[in-house]
Write a structure and sequence with these properties.
This protein is of the alpha/beta class. The chain has a single domain (6-212), classed as Rossmann fold (3-Layer(aba) Sandwich). The chain has 7 helices and 11 strands. The protein has a 9-stranded mixed sheet with strand order 3-2-1-4-5-7-6-11-8. The longest helix has 17 residues, at 144-160. It is globular and about 45 Å long. It starts with 10 loop residues before the first helix and ends with a strand. 36% of the residues are buried. Bound molecules: S-adenosylmethionine. S-adenosylmethionine binds at residues 14, 29-30, 63-65, 67, 85-87, 90, 110-112, 128-130, 133. GO terms for molecular function: S-adenosylmethionine-dependent methyltransferase activity. Keywords: Methyltransferase, Transferase. InterPro entries: Lys/N-term_MeTrsfase_sf (IPR051419), Methyltransf_11 (IPR013216), SAM-dependent_MTases_sf (IPR029063). It comes from Zalerion maritima.
Length: 248
C-alpha cells in the first residue's frame, strides 16, 4: 500500500480493483496472510475466554475484501461471521465464492455508517488494512478528511462492539502515527503486539483494542511471547513467533 495514496480511500479504486476478480483465485491478501497471523489469533482469539469458537462470538470483518481469513475462522469453528465492504463487486464475488459456508454473511456496507448492525452486538471486530486505506498524506499532520473518515469509522466500531468485545487491527503503519488517530477521545484501551517480520522484513503491528469503560482489562507492562528476551532477561518460549505485547 502506498502510504500517501489518497485513491485508496475511494470506492472507485476498490470497485475497479475487484472487477478483476475471477473464479476461485483471490486477487490479493493484504500484506499478511492467515499463516503469518496465526500465533496472534491463537493468543488473542482461539484460546482467549469469551472469544473462542465455543463461545460463539459474532465476528465482524471490517473492509473484508477478498481475504481468506473469514474462511479460515469458519474452518476453526467460528460459525457467526459478518463481512462488510463498501465494494458491491467484492461482496457479490465473495457471496458466490463462499456460498457453501453458511456461517459467513457478506454485506455491502460503508464502515463509517453501519446502520444495519445493532449497538453492542459484536464480540470481535477485525480490520486488516481498512483503516490504513483511509489514511493518506502527511502522517505528522493528517488532513481533515482523514481525521473525519477515521473518526466516523472508529465511533461506529465502538457503537457496535459489545462492552466486553475486542477490536483487532492489523497494520504496517508506525504506532506513533496511528495512536492519535485511533484514540482521539480516549474511549479505548490500547494494547499493541509487535508482529516481527522475519529475516529483516519490516515489523507490522496488531492492535488489541477494548472499550476503556470495560473494567476487566488484561495486561500491563511489556511481555514477550516466544523465544525473545523480555526486559528482565527472562525468555518465554510459549510460541515460536516473534510477538511482543505492550500496554499503551
Ligand atoms: C487494504 S484492503 C484490505 C482487504 C482485506 N481486509 C485484506 O486484509 O485483504 C481495504 C478494504 O477496505 C475496503 N474499504 C475501504 N474503505 C471502506 C469503507 N469506508 N467502508 C467499507 N469498506 C471499505 C476496501 O474496499 C478494501 O476491500
Amino acid at each position: 500500500m502506498a502510504e500517501n495514496d489518497e485513491s485508496l480511500s475511494h470506492l472507485e479504486y476498490w470497485d475497479e480493483r475487484y472487477s478483476k476478480i475471477d473464479g476461485e483465485t483471490p486477487t490479493h491478501e493484504w500484506f499478511r496472510s492467515f499463516s503469518h497471523l496465526e500465533h496472534f489469533f491463537q493468543k488473542i482469539l482461539f484460546q482467549s475466554p469469551g472469544h473462542r469458537p465455543d463461545d460463539n462470538p459474532l465476528i465482524l470483518h471490517l473492509g473484508s475484501g477478498d481475504s481468506v481469513i473469514p474462511a479460515e475462522f469458519d474452518s476453526r469453528g467460528y460459525s457467526r461471521q459478518v463481512c462488510v465492504d463498501f465494494s458491491t463487486k467484492v461482496i457479490e464475488a465473495m457471496t458466490e465464492r463462499y456460498k457453501s459456508r453458511p456461517g459467513i454473511k457478506w454485506e455491502q456496507m460503508d464502515v463509517r455508517d453501519m446502520a444495519g448492525i445493532a449497538d453492542k452486538s459484536i464480540g470481535v471486530a477485525f480490520d486488516k488494512g481498512t483503516l490504513d486505506a483511509m489514511i493518506h498524506s502527511s502522517p505528522w499532520s493528517p488532513p481533515r478528511d482523514v481525521k473525519e473518515n477515521t473518526g466516523r469509522y472508529l465511533r461506529e466500531v465502538y457503537r457496535v462492539l459489545e462492552d466486553s468485545g475486542v477490536f483487532l487491527y492489523i497494520t504496517f503503519r508506525q504506532p506513533h502515527f496511528i495512536r492519535p488517530l485511533l484514540n482521539p477521545d480516549g474511549i479505548w484501551n490500547l494494547d499493541l503486539e509487535v508482529l516481527g517480520g522475519k529475516e529483516g522484513s519490516f515489523d507490522y503491528y496488531g492492535w488489541v483494542i477494548r472499550k476503556a469503560s470495560y473494567q476487566e482489562q488484561k495486561s500491563d507492562g511489556v511481555y514477550n511471547v516466544s523465544g525473545v528476551e523480555d526486559a528482565s532477561g527472562m525468555e518465554n518460549a510459549r510460541t515460536s513467533s516473534n510477538l511482543r505485547t505492550q500496554a499503551l
